[in-house]
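Hi everyone, sorry if this is the wrong subforum. Our group has a chain we'd like a structural model of before ordering constructs, and none of us has done structure prediction before. Sequence below.
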Amino acid sequence: MTNPLRTVLFVPGNRPDRIEKALASAADAVIIDLEDAVPIAQKEKVRLPVREILDKNHSKRTYVRVNGLRTPYCKDDIEAVLSPNLSGIFLPKVESPADSFEIDRLLNELKAGDIDLIAICESAKGVEEIYSTVSAKTTSYRFSTVAFGAADYTLDLGIELTKKGRALDYPRSRIPVACRAAGIAAPLDTPWMIDIQDINGLIEDAKKAKAFGFQGKLIIHPNHIDVCNEIFSPTEQEISFAREVIEAFEEAEREGKAAISLSDKFIDYPIVEKARRVLSMIDLIKKE
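Answer:
Right subforum, don't worry. Here is the predicted structure as tokens:
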């Protein structure tokens, strides 16, 4: 199991003051944004300051969202931010296996080294093609997971993004299944954007995403970090039950049993494996 990404905080690439604050936050990782948060007139000149910040950062996992493959900025964005401290690239507007092969070719050309690659799925075509995209047999670089972008997705479909989020049920169902089927990490859910001050709305939205199979959430406001870190972490009750399951099942195995009842719950190998994943996740969170 890789280190979980419960919270990944967006920060504009043209705001070094905010980047420094983001790096000091409790988010599991930070995304420095060179795409939507940076005006066209600043896209080229913002790269060097971002690279300088990356070179000085030796602790927080830090990603960069570059501009998309179909823009004139993508290659130069990536080349400029290939710091030894860069954790990886978030690639926006990913829509097909052709994008997987193109980013693989580009990263090989730039000799990008060992970096993480995350696809942002944010269109109808992207959602429909997501399994083929993340399971493409590229040469060196493969998407490690997917981030869902609801703002562009709803724009593409011409529908409203609402607090209840019912219009997101389909992509929120499809994307986690595609990631699991492709053997990559669970995806990251879209940010809570409807009303950033509505923490109860955020809680409901994040819990729904977790139920669909997302490992964490993209974050656009620091006040969302602690809430989402808690939601996407196992509860004390889950941890306690996981320990009980493993202890009871190991004893049952020694007695030649492969299925038991514990607190009126049926326990067999899949339940035990889930319990082990819970405890593994806690160990990884503690190491962060």
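For your construct planning: The chain has two domains: 7-231, 236-287. The mean pLDDT is 93.
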